[in-house]
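Recall that a protein's primary structure is simply its ordered list of amino acids. Everything else, from secondary elements to tertiary packing, is in principle encoded there. The following example makes that idea concrete.
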Amino acid sequence: MEEKTRSKGVTIFGWLFIIGGAWSILTLMITGKTIKGIGNIYYFISSSLSFICGIYILKLKSWAKQLAIILCLVSVISIIIFMPSVVNDAVKNFYKQEDIKKQIILEKIKPEYQKEALESLKQKREEIDKSIPVVKRTMFLIGIGIPVAWALIVIYFFTRPKVKEQFME
């Protein structure tokens, strides 16, 4: 029986899936995030599937190629659905931090210095309020742009005829 050979590109993508999946699983474990909620469950499952997918891409299993494409499509859809709420939560969290700073000023700074500290905080907040739309757009574009570009590259790569030939069983 003739040994199948794989291209460098398939090898690279296989290893990228393995490394990405392992990195994501380790990140979940190291950060101590327990598997709670739909987001973490989705993250854990997709990371595990990416890891497994990478192993079997290296073995040139056709189902692994199909799984890679499906994972990328699901990734794009989930990014488009969830990214707006992630960006909004980040902005809300920033404003919560500002409220905490204001509370600290009122509780811990002597009354004669409070007015100056609050004014400084107010100026910083006005500057940040002006930049929030730019920050939101940037976060949104980076949060969507990079993962979607990766997904589209993977989908394009694994649907090319030369690559498909390698996965024929």
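The first helix runs from residue 8 to 30. The chain is about 85% helix and 0% strand.
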